[in-house]
What we know:
The structure holds two protein chains of two kinds. Chain A has helices spanning about 10-15, 25-40, 45-55, 65-80, 85-100.
Amino acid sequence: MEKVHDMGGRREKFGPIDRSDHQVEDWERLADAVNIVLNAKGHKTTDEMRRAIESLDEYREMGYYERWAAAAELLVVEKGLLTREEIDERAAELERRWRGA
Amino acid sequence: MIRPVAGARFAPGDAVRVRDMDKEGHVRTPDYTKGKPGRIAEILGGFPNPERLAYGGDGLPERPLYKVGFRQADLWHGYGGSPADVLFIDLYEHWLEPREHGGEEKRT
């Protein structure tokens, strides 16, 4: 059974590797930082993170740090650090602040 | 050896084959190596099992991890590069079986 983490080398299926780069955005640095802290504090491991990333239904459509952020969200909910509702509420609050409401 | 491990089943130079099996959950063994012939290049030592670590387990007892060499021509149908090209992958012992009869790596 083929999953996202073991599709290496399937050029005939996925075409050549996209080697284009982009300027790292602030939220990507934050996603990286949050992951480092969660690991450092023992809340999750690299292997759990890999497993969570592999489980994302929209893996192929997501960017690198979108995967990180989504997988970290799965794990903090799974471990009871935050609830889905708390995350959604906070996201909505940030959205309101961003819009200046 | 990076980390000491006792009771490793294979030694450098041993002919092995990757077990051709599906396993639910998180595995670190790439699908394209399954069933393919390789050769032990190095014993890397004992490491916690990532298949358990991925679900919050402690991954113990540690499993022997090997650096295994594969001929690229064995891995990829119609491989266009040099027949001498070899790919090295780190694989855990429970994914390897001894390869004694037939199934030799492709010769250059």
